[in-house]
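Listing S7. Sequence submitted for prediction.
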Amino acid sequence: MTDTATTAPVPAPFLTAWFEILDGDQPDKILDLISDDFTLSILFSTGDGNATDFAGDRAALVGYLDQRERGTRTHHLLSATTLGQDELFLGEVRRAGVPEATFVAAGRVGDDGRLQRLLIGRSSEIRFN
């Protein structure tokens, strides 16, 4: 993913695009990007000592999407890398531009270009400033 010949490539192109779609007007479009054997775990902590784990297959991702507050939170890249089929993405969640949480995502992209595995951990208790 590059803009021009002078622009560096995006370090985790799939997950970067994933979060851009998730933050956009049609977040359900990410469902088009997952493989038939997709599995995930999104461990979501808000810092109150409780956490929710959205784990499973496509249905778990649909459940996660259904409970999200659309248009209030955005995902911002802090650092990322790709190694073979695996992408790692360290990011910050912001609410109305104000940092709210840090998250790390790991994804495996299959040979068909769709996401097979997704693991995300989110905490409001640590920042990577």
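Caption to Listing S7: primary sequence and predicted structure tokens for the chain studied. The chain has a mean pLDDT of 91. Residues 80 and 89 are 4 Å apart (CA to CA).
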